[in-house]
């Protein structure tokens, strides 16, 4: 069998090695965040502060998700997008749920969800870009924008489900009712809309934006 997928050749050995190198670099990039997170969690717990230790350990492991995605999908993720993700994990679930910042600072959760919408729209742009590169042709603008917008909305809903499960299983206090849940989903959606607006105005960054949006629907 010479083809993989629909008309695409099987990845070469060089492609596989390149993916492995990229994943290793991403792992090393995320490692300091994992170590620092664990030190903060266990350090504060040792000092007698109320900390969700188990959740903190789980979240420390999630910093390696970009490296895992690179291995599974055999693609690279821009370092700036990885940094945004790492900051989101630290400022959001780690500080918010593990260290109870959500309870201490009103609407901190909403700010985090808004930022996640921007980050996930950026991820959507990357996904559309990769799809265009594999297909060899630009996707329709309306379809690209739909994908970019659908990703923040879908993840916002999935994240609220995760918070609900965490509250039930681990005893955390991430959610405080229906209004809180819906406000967070709206905030994530608004962040995605902002990212799209910035893309249409500035047409940047070129390394991750859909070809169809940046090039007027045709290749130069």
Series of secondary-structure elements, N-terminal to C-terminal: EEHHHHHHHHH
What structural class do you assign from the helix and strand content?
A: mainly alpha
Q: Count all strands and give the number.
A: 2
User: How is the largest sheet built, in terms of strand order?
Assistant: 1-2
Mean pLDDT figure: 82
What is the helix content? over 70%
Distance between the termini: 34 Å
C-alpha Rg (nearest Å)? 19 Å
Strand content: under 5%
What overall form do the CA principal axes indicate? globular
Uncertain stretches: 1-13, 204-220
How many H/I helical runs? 9
Major beta-sheet overview: 2 strands, antiparallel
Features:
220 residues, mainly alpha, two-stranded antiparallel ribbon, 9 helices, 74% helix, globular
Structure report:
The protein is mostly helical. Residues 1-13 and 204-220 have low confidence and may be disordered. It contains nine helices and two strands. α4 (79-98) runs antiparallel to α6.
């Amino acid at each position: 069998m010479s083809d993989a997928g629909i008309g695409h050749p099987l990845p070469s050995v060089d492609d596989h090695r390149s993916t492995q190198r990229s994943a290793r670099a991403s792992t090393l990039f995320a490692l300091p965040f994992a170590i620092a997170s664990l030190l903060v969690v266990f350090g504060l717990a040792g000092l007698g502060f109320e900390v969700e230790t188990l959740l903190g350990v789980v979240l420390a492991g999630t910093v390696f998700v970009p490296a895992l995605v690179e291995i599974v999908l055999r693609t690279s993720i821009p370092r700036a997008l990885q940094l945004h993700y790492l900051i989101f994990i630290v400022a959001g679930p780690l500080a918010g749920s593990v260290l109870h910042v959500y309870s201490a600072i009103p609407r901190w959760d909403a700010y985090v969800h808004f930022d996640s919408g921007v980050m996930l729209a950026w991820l959507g742009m990357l996904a559309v870009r990769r799809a265009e590169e594999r297909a060899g042709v630009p996707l329709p603008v309306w379809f690209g924008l739909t994908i970019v917008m659908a990703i923040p909305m879908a993840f916002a809903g999935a994240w609220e489900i995760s918070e609900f499960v965490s509250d039930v299983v681990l005893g955390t206090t991430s959610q405080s009712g229906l209004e809180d849940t819906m406000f967070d989903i709206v905030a994530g959606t608004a962040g995605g809309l902002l990212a799209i607006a910035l893309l249409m105005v500035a047409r940047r960054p070129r390394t991750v934006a859909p070809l169809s949006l940046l090039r007027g629907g045709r290749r130069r």
